[in-house]
Design brief:
Elements (H helix, E strand, L loop, with lengths): L8 H9 L4 H8 L4 E2 H8 L4 H13 L3 E6 L5 E6 L1 H4 L1 H24 L7
Antiparallel strand pairs: 1-3, 2-3
């Protein structure tokens, strides 16, 4: 197996977490279970088809659980499984990094480039 094919857990995690809306969904569910429509409103901007795809993927990966409640009309709720709850540490680390460094990054983006001439 060459270096390009070697298993890298960081690469695998990024492949999952970089999918659009995934971290927004996880962050919303850290506050507790939500129904599909509640989740859509909380995440904001994610169309229902994409939301369904992301929820199915997170369920397949074991990061969340879907519960269908037997009532009329039927209601589905979503909650994080333990592996999903563990992403709180990742979100906290990203937030700490952002608080410490994002102003510097934004300032660098606004500076004229020395390469432009």
């Amino acid at each position: 197996m060459d270096a390009e094919q070697a298993y890298c857990p960081v690469h695998e995690a990024i492949q999952v977490l970089q999918e659009k809306w995934t971290m927004h969904i996880v962050r919303a569910l850290l506050d507790g279970p939500l129904g599909f429509n509640e989740l859509g409103r909380t995440v904001g901007g994610c169309n229902p088809a994409t939301l369904k795809i992301r929820l199915d993927r997170l369920e397949d990966l074991g990061l969340l659980r879907r519960t269908v409640h037997s009532q009329m009309p039927p209601r589905t709720s979503y909650e994080l499984a333990p592996a999903g709850v563990d992403l709180q540490r990742v979100i906290d680390a990203i937030a700490a990094w952002a608080r410490e460094h994002l102003d510097v990054v934004a300032e660098a983006d606004q500076e004229p480039s020395a390469a432009v001439g």
